[in-house]
Every structure is written in structure tokens, then in C-alpha cells.
Design brief:
By secondary structure, the protein is mainly α. It has two helices and no strands.
Amino acid sequence: MKIPNPKEKYEAQAHTFFHQRLQVLNKPQKQIIMERHLKKFDDEQKRQDDFAKAGDNYEKESRERRLAEMRAAQINKVQRNAGFMEEWLQKGVQDWSKNQQIKKDRERRDLEFEYKETDKYHQLALRKIDEASKEVNEGIE
């Protein structure tokens, strides 16, 4: 029996493996044609995706811009309200102090009036006592 030369088998197997690897690297013509045909559809898909992303970005930016405007308006409103409240509080304190001053002046005038009334009553009482004393003294004389 003849012993086969292992080198021939090895070379045939190596050739088969090389051919298979080469076939993997080279695309079949049908696939190349299909890719060329589908390329315009892929390009259109990319264009539409880019357009959709641009639209989403525009909507997102407009939403953020609206929110920023709303926040700015609310901050402005709060600041105006704070300023108004501060002015209102200052005016209230001024009015209160003015009212307190008026109240003190009125109470002082009332006390002066009462003092004058009491003084008049006291003078009248003293005059009546003096008159009564003079009358008694004149009656005794």
C-alpha cells in the first residue's frame, strides 16, 4: 500500500481555506448591486433622520426658550411684588408713625383741655370761697 503524501493534502486544504477567506473578503456581485440600489434609500433615510433631529432640536430649543421667558417673567413679577411689598410696608410704617404722632398730639391737647377745665373750675371754686369769705368778713365788720 502506498502512503499518501501529506503535503498534497495539506496544500489542497490550505488552498480551500485561502479560497474561503478570499470569498469572505470579496462580496458577491448580487450583494454589491443590491447595496448600490439600496444606497439611495439609505441616503434618504439619513436625510430624514437628520431633518427629524433638527426638528426635535428646534422644538427642544423653543421649549427651553419659552420656559426661560416664563421664568424671567415670573422672576420679574416676584421682584416687582417684592418691591411693591417693601414700599407698601414702608408706607404703612410711615402712616403708623404719623398716626401715632397725631394720637399723641390729640392726647396732649385733651390733657391740656382737661387741665384748663380743672384750672377754671379750681379758680371758680377759689373765687367763690374768696367771695364767701369776704361776705362773711364784711358781715362780721
